[in-house]
Amino acid sequence: MEQDRAIKASLILTTLVVCLAAASVARPILAPATFALFIVAIVWPIQNGLQRGIPKMLALVATLLATLGAISLLVYLVIWAFSHVAQWLLGNIARFQTLYTQAVDWLDAHGLPLHSMVTTSFSPAWITGALRGIGGQGSGLMSFIVLAFAFTVLGLLDVEILRGNIARLDNPGLRQSLLRPAREISKKFQKYMLVRTSMSALTGAVVWIFALVAGIELAAAWGVIAFVLNYIPFIGPLIATVFPSLFALLQTESWSVALGVFAGMNVIQFFIGSYLEPRIAGAQLSMSPFLVLFAVFFWSFLWGIVGAFIGVPILIAVLTICAEHESSKWLATLLSGGDGKA
User: Fold this and answer.
1) CB-CB contact of 339 with 315 (8 Å)
2) CB 248 within 8 A of CB 261
3) Is the four-CA dihedral 309, 310, 314, 320 of positive or negative sign?
4) Is residue 23 within 8 Å of 135, Cβ to Cβ?
5) Are 247 and 216 in contact (CB under 8 A)?
6) What separation, in Å, do the N-terminal and C-terminal C-alpha atoms of the chain show?
7) DSSP calls for 11-59
8) With 60 as the cut, is the pLDDT of residue 241 above it?
9) What's the CA gap between 240 and 262, in Å, rounded?
10) What SS3 state is found at 171?
C-alpha cells in the first residue's frame, strides 16, 4: 500500500515537472492565451450585460474597445512617466559626470580602481548586444499583444457556446463541477482587479504627495510609476521604491535624503499592500503571503514580466478549483491566508 502511494506521488510529481517544462517551452503561445483567459473572465460579465440591450457583435466591439482603452491608458502612463524621468536625467548629465568623477577619485584613493575596471570590461560589443536584446524584447511584446488580442476576441465569442455545450451534458454533477468553479473564478478575478486597481490608485496618490512633501522632483511621475507597477505584486512595489530613492540621491547628492525617501516609500507600500489591501480584499481572496510571493517569482521565471502579473490570478484559479472538490479542499484551506478580518 505504501509502495503504491509512493509510486502515485512520484508519477504526479513527474507529470507536474513535465507540464511546467512544457509551459516554459510553449511560453510564446501559452502566456498570451492565459492572459487572454484572465481578461475574458473579467470583461465577459460586461459584454453579457450589454448583449441584453444591443446586438451581440456590437456588445463585443464595445467590450473590446473598453478593454483596449484601459490597457492603452496604462501603457501611456508608463511611457509618460519614464520619459519625464529620462528627460530629467539627460538634462542633468553634467551633474552625473561630476558625481562620477568624485566617486572614482574617492574609490581610487581607497584602493578601488573603478575607472580601470570599467574601461577593461567595456566594449562596443556590449552595446550591440544590449541593442539587439531591446529589439528582441520589442518584437516579442508585439507578438504577445497580437496573440493576446486574438485569443481574447475568440474567447469572448466562445463563452456562450461553451456554456451551452456544458449545459447540454447529461451528467448534472459534471455540469456543476464545471460551471460553478468558472463562475467563482470570474467573480474572484473581478474582485482582485477592483481591489488591486483601487489600492494602486491610493498608492500612487500617497507616493505623489510624499514626493511633493520630500521635495523630490517629478513627483507626479513617481506617483504614476507607483500606480502602474503596483499591479505586479512584490516586484512592482520594490521597483517603485528603489527608483525614486536613487533619483533622490542623484538630485540632492545626500545619502540621508535618499535613505529617508527609501524608508518613507517602504512604509507606504507596507501599510497599503500588507495591512490595508488584505482587509479590503477579505477572506474570498485571502492567500498565504509566502505562496503569493512564490507564485510571482515562479511565473516570472517561466514567462517573464507577464508571468509576474498573471501569477497571482493563476494561483487564485488553482485554489478555487481545489476548494470545489472534496479531495483537494484541504489544500485550499491549508494555503489560504486566514479569514481576512482585522
Assistant:
1) no
2) yes
3) positive
4) no
5) yes
6) 45
7) HHHHHHHHHHHHHHHTHHHHHHHHHHHHHHHHHHHHHHHHHTTS-HHHH
8) yes
9) 10
10) coil
Helix (H, G, I), strand (E, B) or coil at 295: helix
Among all chains, which residue has been given the C-alpha cell 562620477?
100
Q: Whole-angstrom Cα distance, residue 297 to residue 274?
A: 18
Name residues whose C-beta falls within 8 Å of residue 98's C-beta, 6 or more positions apart in sequence.
Answer: none
Sequence letter at residue 218: L
Q: How far is it, in rounded angstroms, from Cα 271 to Cα 277?
A: 8
All three cell numbers of 78? 508608463
Cβ–Cβ under 8 Å, residues 43 and 59 = no
Q: How far apart are CA 132 and CA 223, in angstroms?
A: 31
The 10 Å Cβ neighbour count of residue 332 is: 17
The residue among 285, 284, 276 whose CA lies nearest residue 342 is: 276
pLDDT in tens, 42-89: 998 889 888 888 888 899 899 999 999 998 998 899 899 999 988 888
Q: Quick one: DSSP state of residue 339?
A: -
Interatomic CA distance for residues 294 and 297, integer angstroms? 5
More confident residue, 111 or 50: 50
Q: Give backbone dihedrals phi and psi of 194, rounded to 5 degrees, phi first.
A: -65, -45
Grid cell in block for residue 52:
441584453
Q: Amino acid identity, residue 79?
A: I
C-alpha Rg value of the chain to the nearest Å: 24
Cell 470570474 sits at which residue?
186
| 319 touches 335 (CB < 8 A) | yes
Over residues 111-120, mean pLDDT: 56
What is this structure's pTM?
0.82
